[in-house]
Amino acid sequence: MTEGNQRSEDEELYSETDLARIEAQGNTNAISRAVAVMVLMVLPGVAGHYLDRWFGTQFLVLVGFVMGMCLAVFGLLYVAKIADRTAKLNRERKLRMKSRKQDLS
Fold first, then answer.
1. DSSP state for residue 9 in the 8-state scheme
2. What are the pLDDT digits (tens) for 8-50?
């Protein structure tokens, strides 16, 4: 292939069905990431509870939940950043598709 015929992934032609499928996958990924963040929030507190029972202390559950909240905040920021990037990419793809349709008309 010549350089003019090669296309990067961003320049690849997408149909409306492809774009709808990509958007639906993005929504599913966002939901699974949000669930993972919730698990990250609770899991350190539960681990702290069991460590408190093991060592006979009473503060590790609190430390675990504070650590879990910090992890959750960073996780949510990460998920929001990825979702924003994906939405921006999908908007750009839709605009390119519309401009190609207008060029063909």
1. G
2. 554 456 677 777 777 777 667 777 888 888 898 999 999 999 9
CA distance 2 to 101: 25
Of 90, 80, 51, which Cα lies nearest the Cα of 67?
Answer: 51
Query: Measured between alpha carbons, how far is 72 from 79 in angstroms, rounded to an integer?
Result: 10
In this structure, are residues 40 and 5 in contact, taking their beta carbons and an 8 Å threshold? no
| Backbone dihedral angles phi then psi of residue 77, each to the nearest 5 degrees | -60, -40
Q: How far apart are CA 44 and CA 96, in angstroms?
A: 45
Q: Report pLDDT digits (tens) over 46-55.
A: 999 999 999 9
Cβ proximity of 52 and 59 under 8 Å? yes
